[in-house]
Amino acid sequence: MTLSADRLTALDAFILDLNRASAEVILPLFRADHGLEDKGAGKNLPRDTHAAFDPVTEADRGAEAAIRALIAERFPDHGVIGEEYGEDRPDAEFVWVLDPIDGTRAFIAGLPLWTTLIGLRHEGRPVLGSIGQPYVNEIFVGHAGGARLVSGGEARPIRVRECANINDAVIATTDPDACFDGAERGAWLQVRAAAKLARLGCDAYAYAMVAMGKMDMVIEAGLKSWDIEAAIPLIEGAGGMVTNWRGEPVGPNGGQMVISGDRRPLDEALVSLRRSAK
């Protein structure tokens, strides 16, 4: 079934409501008593593994609960997949994919680099996505009709920038030591050595900067569906592309991912990344 333009417009407006509902929960807890818990505690994992410290806060759980409640009220037939509360009707025609706070480590460190990721699948395909950073009052929204930044009650179109080659590229990843295995880290280092500038620790905020034309590429691995699905319609709506490390579409389960604003540096990066593709 084709998603009509009118239906997409209504859902686009609704995704802004979801961002506002989550922000009402999150902002009072940012740089405050947020009830930190470690989901990795008691799992007897080596301390040098990424999963050994797996933080969650009242803001993560409360924001996802608020988003789910509003979806259930407005669209009770829609499914939901979320990081904190799992799956509800994941095979529905419309399924929302949620990460209430992407970058919980940044959140607990008081850094405004965390974001709220909200994506929407229609018949299994990502069609609408937003990346929200309410502390700086930004919501990036995208779909097949384009991408925009909503801030201060105003909206303006955004678009990726041209980048002729990897030597001119500003690239990012979250934490190469924690998120990449040995082969993946080697591939990242090859791309980083060729790039003009690399930034670390920006989480999904870096995705938004590619969509806005401020950065050129983000390389990640070990992602879950809620880590990436919101970004796919945003980046594509801004004129960019999202692939796995083989240059193929990212599947519904996440994994290895490259976001790029321009095809040319992406093709160059994939020469290194393909050797470690899974």
Record keyword descriptors for this entry.
28% strand, alpha+beta, 9 helices, eight-stranded mixed β-sheet, 278 residues
Summarize the structure.
It contains 9 helices and 15 strands.
Q: What proportion strand? A: 25-35%
Described by strand count, sense and barrel closure, the largest sheet is: 8 strands, mixed
> Which whole number gives the mean pLDDT?
94
> What strand order characterises the main sheet?
4-3-5-6-7-8-9-10
The amount of helix comes to: 25-40%
Q: DSSP helix count?
A: 9
Q: Give the class from helix and strand content and strand pairing.
A: alpha+beta
Which stretches are low in confidence, meaning pLDDT under 50 for 5 or more residues running?
A: none
Overall geometric form? globular
State the separation between the terminal residues, measured CA to CA. Answer: 32 Å
**How many distinct beta strands?**
15
> What string, H for helix and E for strand, traces the elements in order?
HEEHEEEHEEEEEEHHEHEHHEEH
C-alpha Rg (nearest Å): 18 Å
Structure, explained:
By secondary structure, the chain is α+β, with helices and mostly antiparallel strands. Helices cover 32% and strands 28% of the residues. It is built from 9 helices and 15 strands. The protein has helices at residues 5-26, 58-74, 104-108, 176-179, 182-194, 205-211, 225-228, 231-237, 263-273, and strands at residues 37-38, 55-56, 79-82, 86-88, 94-102, 115-122, 125-133, 138-143, 146-151, 154-157, 170-173, 197-200, 217-223, 241-243, 255-260. The strands form 3 sheets. The protein has an 8-stranded mixed β-sheet with strand order 4-3-5-6-7-8-9-10, with helices on both faces. Strands 12-11-13-15-14 form a 5-stranded mixed β-sheet, sandwiched between helices. A hairpin with a 2-residue loop joins β8 (138-143) and β9 (146-151). The mean pLDDT is 94.
